[in-house]
Write a structure and sequence with these properties.
- The chain has 286 residues and is mostly beta strands.
- The chain is built from four helices and 24 strands.
- The strands form five sheets. It has a six-stranded antiparallel beta sheet. A six-stranded mixed beta sheet has the order 9-10-13-22-14-21.
- It is globular and about 55 Å long.
- The two termini are 22 Å apart.
- 29% of the residues are buried.
Amino acid sequence: MMKVVEHSRFHPSASSTYSEIGTPFSIQYGTGSLTGIIGSDQVTVEGITVINQQFAESVNEPGNTFLDSEFDGILGLAYPSLAVDGVTPVFDNMMAQNLVDLPIFSVYMNRNPESSVGGELIWGGFDPSHFSGNLNWVPVTKQGYWQILLDNIKVNGNIEFCAEGCQAIVDTGTSLITGPSEDIIQMQKLIGADPVDGDYAVECSNLNVMPDVTFTINGNPYTLTPETYTLMENSDGMTLCTSGFQGLDIQPPAGPLWILGDVFIGQFYSVFDRGNNRVGLAPAVQ
């Protein structure tokens, strides 16, 4: 079992065996896009060395999405069917090269901005000290994203969305919780958020009267309080609060989907089990 502890970010390192294959590629994300060529190299992440790892070298990144980002790259951890041009994802190579104890990886995110540890990624295991109770296992419904079934979504105890069930993905690459635009507009109204300059703002003083939002997954409730689904930022001596929900319309055949991004994962320790095609969730210990 190999553990990667993130203080600000972790940096995979590469050897000098790099080779450029030259096959062009393009990727369209929920926000932003890029084009470039496919390369191959030996990739080392915290002591685990993967040989012959193909990866996408970004050459062109239109817009400001990646210009404004603090990260240096994207480490894809979804199923191979989602990989561009049939490239084998790095975790699949870890499993094939017998570099991990178990075919699972797990993610802990610390949402406390004052903490020196930003989170933890474990290859081949999980850390029970980062969650309370037992992991609740949820079957993967489609092997592309880490896609699962949402039973329903409640606001203040009332079922408001997905009354008959809907599909969702657990995704570390999405900062917020997203859903179909029409649903999210209604969600913003229910929590008391108002549109301001492209975002949805809430009064920080209203957190104590805003409703809880509960995602029911495989019969178990996962509740976010206003403090956990609201983002706080200090600017010029003032505290600004914005909604952690965002509209994103994912087109068929993948959509419509809700995305349980970092706002959700920050509260619920997440284990991704490729051996049994399931996701394990439990309340995170902050």
